[in-house]
Design a protein that fits this description.
The chain has 15 helices and ten strands. It is mainly α. The protein has a domain of about 240 residues.
Length: about 475
């Protein structure tokens, strides 16, 4: 298959998404019928490892769609299709102006909330898993909102960016010692309960640091700067002797998957967000930026000394703090809730590698890349499109960084398989073997990965589509 043929398939999918958005003021529906391209009236049964409360039925979710929006801007330039940039702008403008005026300022996006297209209001994921739920919509970032998205949101509605940064304060809990939760109420000015678990995942702290850094650079507000300092210092004393961080800082002892369990991937995620934030803060806050980089280095070293076995293809997602006993390894194919695919973390490692030049990160990612070259796609498993898209994006990024032919050649072999599995029609399946498109499963990453592979093949040194490192 030629790069031009792949780009044609990607464009056909984008055209369908854009057409489906016409009746929703530019927002992409999350679930679509593969044949009619209409929004699904009923929520299909969840695939293995998927939770209904994380889905966006009859809604739209910017965090789910940001990779395909990024792809649209690049294709607009590469293919001289200005309508793609206009459609992406229309989406983000609609979200910024119409969907962000919430009680707390926090956005209806991410893991548990979305914008309900039929009811034209905040969508509550909890109602999809329990229709009798009385709790309000919950904010959880799910993935990093990249700087380019913040720039676009700020262009269309500067006030919504400041209000969001203010609203992040609602993730902090009342009382001592200082603690936050990755969950916060969107429609109520209340703070999370302290509960039996802290639920203060390190990667989410990194998300907020980058959010606050962008808001600080744009506004100069010292309260945002204070929030950055507070979060940067939050995790530092909680590291172990090697620099690794726990999944959460406080868990009951009978919670085997969380209590005293280190999370190398989350440790790397926080480090990467610190590095990106430092780039934003270099001019105005050089001392803070230097501290961020120093601490990021410690966290990266901790990630690299975790008990991975690169030769055997064992990549540690979680391990016991005291013994380094493996708790969870990253799968190559077939991720589930709480169990990220190895490509997810390998791309984060490459993002950090670009900013540090740490060869250990490149070697780690190359080990994961070799697994995607040799491990067959599993039959009869509903592999989410995210796993496949990120796997393809990993091979594309390794080629971009090294220029080695094995990555582009292997990427094309994989791309051919993935097109047959996911894109045998005009719109990608949300997962292998299912008959609907669903943004929560990650087809945005698949479209991005296919387009990046094709564009790199046409011109590696001037590829208009950069890597997407938001899955971290």
């Amino acid at each position: 298959m030629k790069p031009e043929d792949v780009l044609e398939k990607v464009c056909r999918s984008i055209d369908i998404l854009v057409n489906a958005s016409e009746r929703h003021e530019g927002l992409f529906p999350s679930l679509l019928d593969l044949t009619t391209h209409e929004m699904l009236p009923e929520l299909p049964s969840a695939i293995d490892g998927q939770r209904n409360g994380d889905r966006s039925h009859q809604g739209s979710n910017l965090i789910h769609d940001q990779a395909v929006l990024k792809t649209m801007y690049a294709l607009s330039k590469a293919l001289d299709r200005e309508e793609y940039a206009r459609a992406a702008d229309r989406y983000i403008r609609r979200f910024a102006i119409h969907c962000t005026d919430t009680v707390t300022g926090l956005f209806p996006w991410g893991e548990h909330a979305f914008w309900h297209l039929i009811e034209d209001k905040i969508g509550n994921g909890a109602l999809l898993s329990n229709p009798s739920s009385r709790g309000g919509a919950i904010h959880d970032h799910l993935r990093q909102a990249p700087v380019w998205v913040w720039e676009k949101l700020y262009e269309y509605n500067p006030g919504c960016v400041e209000r969001f940064a203010e609203g992040l304060d609602y993730h902090w809990k009342d009382g001592e010692p200082l603690e936050y939760s990755r969950h916060a109420h969107i429609e109520a000015e209340t703070r999370p309960d302290r509960g039996d678990r802290s639920c203060d995942f390190p990667r989410h702290g990194g998300f907020y640091i980058l959010d606050w850094s962008f808001a600080y650079i744009k506004s100069g507000r010292t309260d945002f700067l204070q929030q950055i300092h507070r979060m940067v210092d939050y995790w530092w004393p909680k590291r172990d002797g090697e620099g690794l961080l726990l999944i959460e800082s406080r868990s009951p002892e009978d919670e085997d998957r969380f209590y005293n369990v280190n999370a190398p991937g989350q440790t790397l995620s926080l480090a990467t967000s610190l590095l990106e934030s430092a780039m934003l803060l270099d001019e105005k806050q050089p001392e803070l930026a230097a501290k961020m980089r120093q601490r990021a280095t410690v966290y990266i070293n901790g990630f690299l000394v975790a008990p991975h076995d690169l030769e055997k293809g064992i990549f540690v997602l979680a391990c016991k703090r005291d013994t380094h006993t493996l708790v969870d390894a990253m799968p190559i194919w077939g991720s589930k809730y709480g169990l990220w695919p190895a490509s997810y973390v390998a791309l984060t490692a490459l993002c950090a590698y670009r900013m540090t030049g740490d060869e250990g990160l490149l070697r780690w990612s190359e080990s994961v890349g070799h697994c995607y070259l040799r491990e067959p796609f599993p039959p009869n498993v509903a592999v989410p499109a995210m796993d496949s898209g990120l796997g393809l994006s990993l091979l594309a990024d390794l080629y971009d960084l090294t220029g080695e032919a094995l990555w582009i050649d292997g990427g094309w072999r994989l791309a051919g398989k993935l097109i047959r599995i996911y894109l045998d029609g005009d719109l990608p399946r949300g997962a292998a073997g299912i008959d609907w498109y669903e943004s929560q499963m990650g087809p945005s990453f698949l479209l991005h990965g296919l387009a990046r592979m094709a564009l790199l093949s046409i011109e590696r040194n001037h590829c208009p589509l950069e890597a997407d490192y938001t899955a971290r």
